[in-house]
Each structure stands twice: as structure tokens, then as C-alpha cells.
Amino acid sequence: MTASRHGWEPDRLLPGYEARTLRGWLPQAPATVTRAVAAGGRDPVLTLVRPVQAPDAPRGVVVHLHGYNDYFFAPHLADAFRDAGWAFLALDARRAGRSWRPGDVPHYQGDLREQASDLTRAVAAARRTWPGLPVVVHGHSTGGLVTALWAHAHRGRGRPDAVVLDSPFLSVERSWVRPLQDGALRPLARRVPLAVVASAPSRYAARLAERWDFDTSLKRPDGVPVRAGWLAAVRAGQLRVARGLALGIPVLVARSSRSGADVADGTDLDGVDTVLDVATIAALAPRLGADVREVVVEGGVHDLALSLDAPRAAYLTAVTDFLGTVRR
Asked: Which residues form the Serine aminopeptidase S33 domain (predicted)?
């Protein structure tokens, strides 16, 4: 497909890629939170990103959703899927990455249905472009939490054929953010949704910047402040997962073998998850559905696709093997 057709233009960040910006939907609630973050009342946007060259006869399409303080910048991920015969479409969700606009609060959503609605648009675009093919959503961290909740909500019409969750943010327990108690957080989020409840540099992002090429204004080593409204939305989603979801599709949950502290003098920053507690991921993963498969990557970091060579290869092999089992 040519880069200028149907709103697609050459991507400004990755050579050999094209991007399309779409207007985002706003959920009905909570309206006060939505207004609080919309710069001058402007509607949010989302951005779809894809390689110019796709497989001639793809077996299916993978839709990728990033995490917090993140955006799509990893062409090797798309390359791995292409080599396995799958087309690829990445989503930079509202107020993140290519979709951030001056005045936006970076990565903020006061209701996880905001980002979920962006995912709905991305999956619909994938189905229009590659009709009749299986669609698998690959969600990382907070994007993994949103993906799980979205797939549960779409277990009837519009559901994906499978999901892959890369270190999903299923709980705040022993995670990168130290939350208020829910009883104190919820009223604070209603009153002052943009109140900062946690803020710290990300040694994890700083370490990745030493090995990977990305825009540090879009994935910030100095971190992105955690705001009350965002954290309350995340906690509501995590509590829903804890009660149990009913994903009637194959689910692959991948995590590192170990967790560690996100500190500057950490001795193993390149071989553990310094963002989330992997034991909590393991405990909560079975609550996602009836067909949950687990991959444990020895030496993996929080984003398994950005690990060192051997664990990254192990992760990508596990995912592409899983894709080989997916049927429409």
C-alpha cells in the first residue's frame, strides 16, 4: 500500500514505516476527568503505525499496544512477526508517543475505557485492511491490563482471536508505584484527578536508552508522574481482574523469571523485571480465562521484547510459536 493512501503518511520516527492519526472517542464518564485533561477542549487522537512492507499473504495480523511511559519504537518486533508470516499494526494511544499533543498530560486516562476505545479503533482498522484473518492483540504492561479488560468486554462481537500479554500490569503490589490505599485514592481522584501521587526517575528507561534508540521525550528516563485519576482507573481495572475475567480465547502471559529493584546501582538491571512483581503476575494470570498459557523468560527485563539477545530471542520464539496455534 502506498504511504499516502487513505490518510497514511511516512512515519516521522521510523524509516520504512507509515502512520495514520485518528480522532479518539471520549467515554461518557467520568466527564470531569476527561475535561480536566483535554487541552482547550480538544478531542484526543490516536496513531496507527505499520511497516510499509507487509507479508504478501499474511496468516494474520498482530495489533500492538504499548505501556505507560512508552510508545512503539521497536521495528524488530514487527520484523519477528513478519518473518512468521504475520502483518503488524502498532497503536500509540491517546496522550502517548506520536499521539501526544502540547497541553496533554502525558499518558493520562481517567478511565481505562479511553485507551480501550483506541484499541477498538486499531483492531477495526486491522480487520478492514486484512479481512477474514485472525487478529491477535499484543499488549505490554499497562497496555496488557487494558488488553485483557478490552478482550473481556469484547468476548462477543469484535473479539480478538487471541491475546499476548507481555509483563501485564495486573497489580500494584510490589510494583514501580507505591499507591495510596484505595479508600483514600478514590475520593482524591474524584476531587483532584491530576494530583501527583508518585513521581520518580525510571532507571529502567534510562538503562534501555543505553541499548535502544528511542525518543527520550516520549519514553522518559526521568519518568512520568503518576496522577490520582490515572491510578484510580488502573486500580479499578486491576480489581476487576482479581475478581476474574472470562476471556474465551487463547491467552499467552509472558513474564521474566525474577523481579528486582529499579535503582541506579542495581547489579542486574539487564536481567530482571525492575518494574513489576513477577510472582503477582503468575498468581493473577489464571484469573484471565480458561485457556491461559504461561511463558517464563529467564533473564528477561520488564518489556521482554527489549531484553538482551538470548532472552529476547526466547520470548519472540515463544510468541511466534503461539501465533502458529491461533485459528480464526
From this structure: 57-211
